[in-house]
Amino acid sequence: MTRITDEGRDPHRRAAETQRASRDRVHAGIDDEEYPIALKVLQRMIRDAGGDARQGA
Asked: Which Gene3D superfamilies match (predicted)?
């Protein structure tokens, strides 16, 4: 099991808040049903352009 140290709690909280705000910003105007469809289309466009659209790649 991984545990966050006391000194790591604040940076972890800030990173989580930043990630949440970023996701909310790019998700704005796209409902939860459309979001996975939009991601699949964007991944296909990346592959068509010769890129690697795998998560974490």
From this structure: Winged helix-like DNA-binding domain superfamily/Winged helix DNA-binding domain
- Report the distance separating Cα 10 and Cα 41, nearest Å: 36
CA angle at 44 for the pair 28 and 22, rounded to the nearest 5°? 25
Residue 26 lies in a domain: no
Query: Domain for residue 44, yes or no?
Result: yes
Separation between Cα atoms, residue 29 and residue 23, nearest integer Å: 12
pLDDT digits (tens, 9 = 90+) for 7-35: 999 999 999 999 999 989 988 999 989 98
- Whether 9 is covered by a domain: the verdict is no
* 39 lies in some domain: yes
pTM of the predicted model as reported, rounded to 2 decimal places: 0.56
